[in-house]
Amino acid sequence: MEIIAQKRQENGKKAQSLRNDRLMPAVMFGKGQDSISLTVDLNNFIKVFSIAGENTLVDIAIEGAGKEKVLIKDVQLDPITLSPIHAGFHKVNLKEKITAQIPVEIIGSETNPLVKSGDGLVLTLLDEVSVEALPSDLPSSFVVDVSGIEEIGDGITVSQLDYDRNKVEIVGHEEDEMIVKIDHAVMEEVAEEVSEEEALAKVEASEELTEEEKKEREAEENEE
Which CATH superfamily is domain 2-91 in? Predict the structure, then answer.
């Protein structure tokens, strides 16, 4: 996947004129390097970003400066149209491990027997999982299949994720941390249990109150 870019001199208000021409301002940055302002074709960027996301290496071909391997980062969206209006390209050291947040993709909800019966619902507890790996070894996502979960309260933990453990290390998460589970579709109402002694006390209190009311009424009648 490749993004075509040109070095950009225009900054500030002139960025709007770029967008009017279906061009998008961007910046390339890297550890120990000066950032470079760029312009990219918006349609080209949207197509590549929809496939690569933020965890897949892509080539950026800068006119007159060759190609670089980058990760797409810090994509800003227009609040109304939700179209990208700016992006960052992180130039990485291919021999140096980096930390990244990998999105979790839940599949199999529609075929889970508890969900189909209406007794359960899928509760996602982790949307992303933090990993450390070389840029070229980063997984694009963690796919979690919930179709086989058969008991309410059961789920899938970090230790059950499918990935290459020789190349990718999960960091900041315990192995038994739950990523997704099946919960009750409707919260069960817990009836308040009342002991026999408490029930008797309530009856007696009610009877006492009734006697007191009778006495008050008798007193009022005598006064009349």
Answer: Ribosomal Protein L25; Chain P (2.40.240.10)
